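> forwarded from #structure-qc
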């Protein structure tokens, strides 16, 4: 049994869904509903979602991380003193306190990049805010045929695809509500979430060299 199926429980069976079948089961008369939003409008999505915000993080580096004092601290010492009182932390803490779910799957290379190791450390802070963060090796993500897209899925009804320039800077966000696309993103979410490993377990295995 391949690594991508090790997370299956006893009695569970993996099912591969052909793309053609997925296409047949999605609305035929849907027209593409996508528009570009700026980062301020994107931030507003975290204030207005009703029950779930889920992200797939696929990139090897994020320029915005590398511009922070915490990144510099991590590179120099391997540890970070996280501030949990900034506006993002306050917002996410308030949302998860209401029972809303904020979840992520982060793709990690072998060996991990410095940026990915930084985010593994960052997961300690975000978990204390109520986020559920899991990790998946890139080789497993490739076997699962997960897309290279970096996106958030809100309430299983709209997707926000993050768009980066050649320097790995987040430029803007494509907001997608087309039903067929939301089905596709939901299938990606379910596959990634099922096979990903909680970040504490993932980090322990990484530290032990497994």
């Amino acid at each position: 049994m391949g690594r991508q199926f090790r997370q299956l429980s006893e009695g569970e069976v993996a099912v591969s869904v052909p793309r053609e079948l997925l296409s047949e089961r999605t609305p035929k008369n849907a027209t593409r509903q996508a528009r570009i939003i700026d980062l301020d409008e994107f931030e507003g999505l975290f204030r207005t979602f009703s029950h779930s915000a889920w992200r797939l993080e696929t990139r090897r580096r994020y320029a915005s991380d590398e511009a922070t004092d915490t990144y510099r601290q991590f590179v120099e010492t391997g540890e970070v003193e996280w501030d949990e009182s900034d506006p993002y932390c306050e917002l996410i803490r308030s949302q998860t306190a209401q029972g809303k779910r904020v979840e992520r799957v982060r793709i990690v290379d072998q060996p991990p990049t410095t940026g990915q190791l930084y985010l593994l450390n960052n997961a300690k802070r975000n978990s204390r805010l109520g986020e559920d963060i899991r990790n998946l090796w890139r080789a497993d993500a490739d076997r699962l045929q997960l897309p290279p897209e970096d996106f958030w899925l809100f309430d299983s009804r709209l997707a926000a695809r993050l768009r980066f320039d050649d320097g790995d800077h987040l430029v803007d966000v494509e907001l997608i509500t087309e039903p067929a696309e939301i089905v596709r993103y939901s299938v990606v979410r379910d596959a990634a979430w099922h096979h990903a490993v909680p970040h504490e377990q993932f980090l322990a295995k990484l530290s032990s060299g497994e």
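QC bot note: The beta strands are 34-37, 52-57, 101-108, 132-137, 151-154, 158-164, 170-176, 197-198. The chain has a mean pLDDT of 88.
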